[in-house]
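Fig. S4 source data, part A: sequence.
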Amino acid sequence: MIQQKSNGLVRINARKTDIFDIFNFKHYLGPNPYLDTGALVFDFALIESRQPLPIADYISRIGDRYPHLNQETYETHAHLFAKVASEVSKLDMGLHLNRWSVKPDADYACISIQSLHERTTRAVVYLVWDWFEAINQDKKFFLDDELLTLQKRFRESVYGGPTVYALLRTAYAKGIPTTYLWSEALMQYGYGKKQVRGIATTFDCDSHIDSDFTTRKDECKIFMQTLGLPVPEGDIVFSEKEALAIAKEIRYPVAVKPVVGHKGIGVTAGVQDAKELVSAYNRALLAIPEDQPTRIIVEKSISGTDFRLLCVNGKFVAATERRPASVKGDGYSTIAELIREENRQPARLDTPTSAMSKIQCDEAMEIYLDEQGYSLDSVIKKGRTVDLRKVANLSAGGVSIDATSTIHDDNIILAQDIAQHFRLTCLGIDVIAENLSESWKTSSNFAILEINAAPGILMHLNPAVGESVDVPSRILETFFESGVNSRIPIITFNKISIEELQETIDHILSQHPDWTIGAVCHDAVFINRSQKALRYDYNSNVQTLLRNPKLDLLITEYEESILEEEGMFYQGSNMVVLNNPTETEMILARDIFDDSTVVIKKENDISIRRRGLIEDYTLGENEPFTQVYFKELGTI
């Protein structure tokens, strides 16, 4: 691994032409000795045989891309590198990663930058390193192209879905702890008995029966009819022949869609004749999962605008108008060229925070263009707008427009009446109407198309047009009034023996016999007094305990070696007990809440800090330290 040795510093990862070297990567999921949040930590050094450019030279080049960095001063090249890496880690998507620190050493500096996804953050660091070296050699560096690759990498990560990231970022802002459970492919919000787990907008408290019911569009349609609500006339078919017969019976135009589906895949609206129906039927057929039978809905196509109504915990929260993707002619560009130009717009970066996805070109688009007398090679008159799809599918490039403030009270009541029939945290209701400001009771063009148990929320949070509705907050507030409500009490020691741990558990159970207490030290794991398997990866023991939905309280030990190797799994303790702590172990007193209690023993001297007050005294002869912190347990 060592490539070359200079007069002083050994090159670790540096190439022969490099002036900087980066090595000793560590990734922490939570607070660590270097930063009080999840972080990528690495060492940054200058190669002694070569001299870097003045800091101002790097700033002048970097400032062309990030002008606000010109306004700051930097102590060293390491400080500038850390700041730039932190800025680039946002990926031009506004990611909430803005924490960094630099810890100088004699031969190098230890840099830490806030991280969510290790693979992406590490790639960011290497990208910034390449950028600095390109500046050293006065070479061009195509940062935007590199960022596109990293944006894609982040999007493909478990955190990169728009709904997941929106909830995660909001939880971070509210102080609600989040954990991705790799073995379950679930996100956990909160700890112990306060937790909820879920995928996007579906949570473990939701009725799986109700969730499954919403995927059966045929049965949902019958249910809507029993409630006396407007649904399009139509039926389920099992063959192309039946589809043609139903369409003839209810009369064209009709809509065709698979019974089981999502994101508008396989849906065709406004089918005008038998020829179009055959094409629409085949598209719906292709969208049906292999393990599902051939069941396709053919129903009356209602003219109007496509809207999504969103309810959270049975209450109406937001409404969004969805328009099909379109392009406006300039008199000389083809439709294909107009699409490529539109897809270059910043709003269509197609990242977890983008207002719009890129416009997708497929068979359905080409068929619809043909129906209008166009093709991808057609040149459109200047100022003329051409719709590219019949269906307002946002994932294929449709446009979202906030309509929350325009909705009629009757339509709000309709949405809530539907939502309150389901034990689901979130419910999306797709309707078609001329506009939402008119009551469904008096409108001739109003119909409920379908309901969705796992609705996306980005269209409401970041619409292409209109005001944002903070749906993630409304969802998380369903479970937690605040970040405090998402946590169970946590007591952290820097060192504690098995005997002391058992004694502490017994003391707490004597006061709260109905509690379930999880405890872990270097040598054992307990649920109350029952010893459990101890895993080599220390933080996995802590995570497993916090994953327990019955847990009332957690007791943990974090000594210096664990803090250095793995960091902490969680942030914030209600009580910290330090017995002759090292400098590194003192960081446990850093990551606490404002009303937490800290007990510190140095030899026989005791210091107790609680709610801004400090009490100092000396242990009495033969007075055990356990009695000191036992007296303080009541404060949590």
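Fig. S4 source data, part B ends here. The longest strand covers residues 592-602.
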